[in-house]
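Amino acids appear as letters; backbone shape is given numerically. Here is one record.
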Amino acid sequence: MRHFNRRSVKNSAILFFSLLLALGPVGGAFAAAREKMQAPERNSANFEAWLTKEVRHELVMLPFYSVFDNLQYKVDGAKVTLVGQVVRPNIKSDAESAVKHIEGVEAVDNQIEVLATSPNDDRIRRAEYRAIYSFASLQMYEVRSVPPIHIIVNRGHVTLEGSVATEADKNAAGIRANTVPGAFSVTNNLRVDNGK
């Protein structure tokens, strides 16, 4: 049986209370950050801007969201409309669930299309990914946590969605996408956002 003397108990108590005091400002910082994250009043001018930012955050944080999915949304007051295309049905339901749980959201209209299963489309997806992201000037986009060039393949037709920093990158992605054999068409919907 271990025996504690009064001195060690006293020192332990002093250390514990010192840690509590030291963490006090940190706890206050967490409380302040939590307050900033709360939704503004629904009728306020910045509610839609706040909600738009929250919806985007929830969608890009979905665990199985990939470069082969395209999730877009529209915020109208407290209603969110989800559109786009996904490879897996669970991404459609996960997106709706994530958005429904955002404070202030009253309704979600889920219009996301689940793409048909196709071994040929899967082959084209892999080939498009290699063609685009292995190109020297486009490799920098691959290392981002959410690569910004999304490759949507539907029955052999390819659509590029997302954003790139320059017009040259947009053109390079379109040219590379057109080199993949078996793709019936390529539509380049990439936006140029100057890295923003």
